[in-house]
Amino acid sequence: MLVEVTRHINATPEQVWAVISDVEHWPDWTASVTSVKRLDEGDLRVGSQARVKQPRIPTTVWTVSELEAGRSFHWQAGFFGGVITGGHYAEAAPEGGTNLRLVIEARGGLTGIMSGWVERTSRKNMNMEADGVKRKSEAGAVAA
After folding, report:
1. Measured distance CA(92)–CA(9) in Å, rounded
2. Per-domain residue ranges of the chain
3. By CB distance 3.0 to 4.6 Å, which of 53, 63, 66, 89 could disulfide with 34?
């Protein structure tokens, strides 16, 4: 199962990156995340972990598996006996601004049986997140 959501944002890739990489502040700008607790300190990096609580979803520990500083990161978590990977991309748009792309891919375990619920829930949450990143980035009020 693969879900992708995109938004054009009238802010620089650096501004968008500052928002998406500051995972502990996600609850400040999206209702799809109740709380995020980093399990390490410093900048987001490969191996960083965060405990994420979302409405109607079990609390999940996500581990950063890939990162291109200033541009993108992927993180993974165990989910219904399978693996779910979330990708977050801040790409310079040819017309100016930034193209935000959010991707979720679920594989294995019960994801086949639960794919309808997982896809609907993921798409709803990702749309809330994309809208929140857009609002936060365009406001220029990035938390330090």
Report:
1. 10
2. 2-139
3. 53
Please report the pLDDT score of residue 112 as a whole number: 64
Chain CA centroid to CA 105, Å:
12
CATH superfamily for 2-139 is START domain (3.30.530.20)
Q: Report the relative pairing of strands 98-107 and 72-79 from DSSP bridges.
A: unpaired
Tell me the pLDDT tens digit for each residue of 108-134: 876 665 677 678 889 999 999 999 999
What element of type H or E holds 137?
Answer: helix 115-139
Determine the Cα–Cα distance for residues 45 and 43; give it in Å rounded to an integer.
Answer: 6
- Gap between the Cα atoms of 50 and 4, Å rounded: 22
8-24 tens-digit pLDDT: 999 999 999 999 999 99
CA R_g for the chain: 14
DSSP 123: H
